[in-house]
Specification:
Arc Repressor Mutant, subunit A, five-stranded antiparallel beta sheet, 10 strands, homodimer, Beta-Lactamase, about 45% helix, elongated, DNA-binding, three-stranded antiparallel beta sheet, alpha+beta, Enolase-like, domain 1
Amino acid sequence: MGLDDRKLAVLRAIVEDYVATQEPVGSKALVERHRLGVSPATVRNDMAVLEDEGYIRQPHTSAGRVPTDRGYRLFVDRLSRVKPLSPAERRAIERFLIGAVDLDDVVHRTVRLLAQLTRQVAVVQYPSLARSSVRHLELVPISTTRLMLVMIADTGRVEQRLVELPAPVPADDVTDLRRLVNEKLGGQRLSDTPPLVQALVEESASHLRPAMTTLATVLLETLVERHEERIALAGTANLTRGGILDFQGSLRPVLEALEEEVVLLKLIGEVEPSTMRVRIGDENEIDNLRAASVVSTGYGPGATIVGGLGVLGPTRMDYPGTIATVRAVARYVGDLLAQN
Amino acid sequence: MGLDDRKLAVLRAIVEDYVATQEPVGSKALVERHRLGVSPATVRNDMAVLEDEGYIRQPHTSAGRVPTDRGYRLFVDRLSRVKPLSPAERRAIERFLIGAVDLDDVVHRTVRLLAQLTRQVAVVQYPSLARSSVRHLELVPISTTRLMLVMIADTGRVEQRLVELPAPVPADDVTDLRRLVNEKLGGQRLSDTPPLVQALVEESASHLRPAMTTLATVLLETLVERHEERIALAGTANLTRGGILDFQGSLRPVLEALEEEVVLLKLIGEVEPSTMRVRIGDENEIDNLRAASVVSTGYGPGATIVGGLGVLGPTRMDYPGTIATVRAVARYVGDLLAQN
DNA sequence: GCTGGCACTCGACTGTAGCGAGTGCCAGCA
DNA sequence: TGCTGGCACTCGCTACAGTCGAGTGCCAGC
């Protein structure tokens, strides 16, 4: 049962009005606010069909209609054009991001910017280590049996980790260790390092072997296994924007979900190149976020992707505007990274 | 007009009951639940006095009494004994904190632990740079005109920053720069470094002068001026615990305040040695937090203090329990830091 | 100085009624 | 066939009146 153009127009009008007013929209108001060219009665008939098909629903018998998740999906896929950003917004993005001095700085500014522009919760993943390459590994002696391992990645990320050596290691040996790990791992993608680290141990001279073994363990742990991903979050206060009307009465589950880094990574981490991902309500795999929508995308210098970013808000959100903003911010950040 | 012992007992009973039930408490219920040894009528007289003195108030004429901020203050100062922690709690703390591998790790575990134990919002300040000493400064060449400056502090903090040199600097000169800054700044308290950095520039050989000047600028910026403080936060979902009943109807201002790092620092950063600080409702300088209470203290290895930690919750909180937990966690973290 | 008793207050809850936005259906018209 | 105007109906929302009861303040008496 196809939906003709007018029915689609009605759906679009319902979504737009509901997003704007946050109130169920009735046939009469629709006809008044949009030039549909037909009478309320006709709109009612169309609405009945849209409801049968699951695109809208009535909260109460005597109330207007509200889009369902399915309705929003159709709207996003077929009924909305991405709004161009206003010059003011473009300027805001530029002004916010220039002057960033640090990767940390870039990420923090970005997440705040996103939250501010979209008036929603923003999430930015630091450049993924898995997608980074080793630029340099530094070993700083803290004491004779302790080293600080510092890894600098090409994406600007810097990770450090304390290494407890099994026995004292003289300074010259530390120099050797440093040279060896850099020769072997420098320039390599982090995801490719495990076998190289293994080889490093096997190839190292016997007097270096114990220290190298410990170092290798830490390297693998730090760089590949353990919390390799970092996340920044901002704008949680925006959750309270629509009263508690959104999120079906309780922010609790949403706030809980946002505290779990793993959850956040799921939200914005799985990115394919140059795709905007929009997950609406029920489409979210995370139960706590069934009442929320997530708009996310990848970012990175040029065409490569090093991490994800996005925003989270009520299903009742301004999708075209949000999508446009997320995309624009992702591009700017990518350009910024490309400059370094 | 002094308050005799019974009146104080009545106040204590009111606070305890209200914290437990979250409902205004009346004279009759009080007499039933606590062995006050007098009749409701007598309690009513005492309540009238307590109300006159501003320790309690009536939300409505025909309702029970609720403690005021002033009432809580008196309760905390004179009426409550710190509850000893349960063995289960002690064990939880130990189990949670052992196995931390990193300063980051310690801080993250601590903040989550605090949030979990107190069921409130937890805030932990990273060891303050101002209270740290330089353990080592590392300069890693990224290109001929770019260095990565890495500072490792004795408290375990590691800060890095990109340095854009005015002109290419050969590797040997980088080695010299590294040696010079470490000789001058190694072991120094960060707060003492500015004049030393200045001296460093003045004393450096002429061919190193331009690079050293840039380096000095970055050193001062990174280590002393700019976002030198870091903060970890957890448990915001706990704000929704008491319904929206706490926080006079809106989480908004609270969530907003928690997004501002400056605000958080104000909350837990200003610490004197071995003091528990309890700020109740109106006592908070931050307007957005007039409906909240903050329990905070300093922590650090041994008797020295390197940072602050604490929790934030509704004024209607279990002060004795919260104070005990915050104190215990601060001690454990201090011990943990002392081991490194 | 404590107590029991008593009149009073006032919020919470219940039930009723009217309003009005919005609907579904139907007959009529192009 | 498809759109329209009309009409009866639903039902949430608001206002209002009435009842209930927890809790109070006050007072006389022990």
